[in-house]
Amino acid sequence: LTPDTLTYILNTGGLVFPPLTFVPYDAYRNRLYSPDELMGDYQVGVTGSYSHTLDGRVYDHYVNNGKDHPASILETLAQRLHDHAITDALEELIDGRKVVAIMGGHSLKRSDPNYIKVALISGELTRRGYLMTSGGGPGAMEATHLGAWFAYRSQAELEDAVEMLAAAPIYKPMEQWLDTAFAVKQKYPLQDKNGQYPESLGIPTWLYGHEPPTIFATHIAKLFANSIREEGLLAIAKYGVIYSPGSAGTIQEIFQDACQNHYKSFGVVSPMIFLGEDYWKCKKPVFPLLAQLAAGREYSSLLAITDSVDEVIQQIEKFAATL
User: Which domains are seen in the chain, by residue range?
Assistant: First the structure.
């Protein structure tokens, strides 16, 4: 702005936010992140190269300045401005889209049968026009985006990719986990169909920055405030949420979603589909309690539990047909 323009804006009631040069991120960005932007400086096979990526540099700054309780109000405001900008860009991306979320444990191994089940569900729903969304991290979250990435490839290619990834079954050590993912992307670049490329949306947080974001998501809405991320992720999944096996975090999300459905907080009641009958009925008996909680409510008819990939997809499509 020229001095005269700046003076005019301020004198007529405008508000001008200054450049925030003390943070390693753009607090006023007008778009979501891409994997290349966050992880572009990562070097396969080089220990410690993650710290040189934008994602790593932002995480180090976040940790060194108090994480979610920074000592400086300037840090707090910078984080909030950033998350506001990301939320705005996120709303633009999902406008008019059929969003389905998959929740599940970050510790789900790439070698676990449920990993490829999640990928198969995500791939098929992507082909049917849904925007698949997750928390954007490892485990079931990564499987969600892997499935979308392979939406226009064969199941044999997907199975080969999962076998490659299984050489580093969990996200620790981080470098091995990332190296195998980069190897898969190099072997299987994003494949289009009639000029259309599959998309998926990851919504991770720097609060859990020790878990690297999946590089298979085409759009990444990375936030500082986990509370905004948790509620927002469930709120935008108006075409349903699929729950693969998970622990405390996933169970928290289940009841947060149930609360949104119970009170119709966002004006929409949407499906809650549980993948794994034995897990959700016996090992973590959430489903019987949820069914009891939902009795007499609109969302009681939108609860489902199954071990079948096809049944999960049918439940999503059944609900979509009513909208």
Answer: 98-320 (3.40.50.450)
